[in-house]
């Protein structure tokens, strides 16, 4: 059966891939602040202007939607999920699939981003809507932030470069989201979504060097250096959340692998090597 599915965060890493999967069989409402930019990025479906910070426009954006995918992005603004939940209720949306973070299950994770994701999950649980949570480990695509350094021959500098992380391919997250939005049996479920193995930043850099067939150096940062770099790019509270998260990774909190990508999609999740082969042009 063809459904009408709204994708909130359609211009994002997972949302963009999700619209491509869904558009083959379903009527997709792709919510974005910038339809022009979204079209350039190849977002599929009907591009619907929407800003999660502006409640008034969301009713019309979700009009007639059977299901809703939610990826929100601003841990300093909890209103975004509130606005989407109230608009989804008003529009009669039957099922919400929310992208969350696996750290919410770790009682030691008390950083700003994880607390925000926990609060968002609680908000959806209390919303009266049927929900599914996709709790993701770090996206493999985060290392696209190294592409400039790799292209220019500079070292890739990270904090705790030997700390393992069972990072996940965003394409697997999009496939899992598509199954949860369109198939039965996902109501009230929270899935732990990881890749097939834990990999450290130093190992990721070595993978890239091997695939590029040239040396790529890894450089270890101190906590002070990493914090200064994050503070230059993000609000201070977010920079500190990243530091707390890196410390948990160094303590081994992100190394375990979960079976849920395969459980939901029937496919083994992609390795970092497979992800890197598909994105190698970004590093050339
Ligand atoms: N990255 C990770 O490793 C990771 C791991 C676990 C969980 N997560 C979670 O996954 C989600 C995606 O994170 P990300 O950092 O990877 O984001 P991202 O995919 O880079 O997406 C950013 C998108 O947010 C949209 N956006 C921002 N503010 C908006 C607003 N006010 N209204 C409407 N759209 C808005 C923008 O789309 P438009 O410009 O098209 O509007 C932009 O494309 C977050 O909830 C994050 O906590 C991420």
From TrEMBL:
Residue ranges occupied by any NAD(P)-binding domain in the UniProt entry: 9-182
Coiled-coil spans in chain: none
Protein name: NAD(P)H-binding protein
Native species: Streptomyces viridiviolaceus
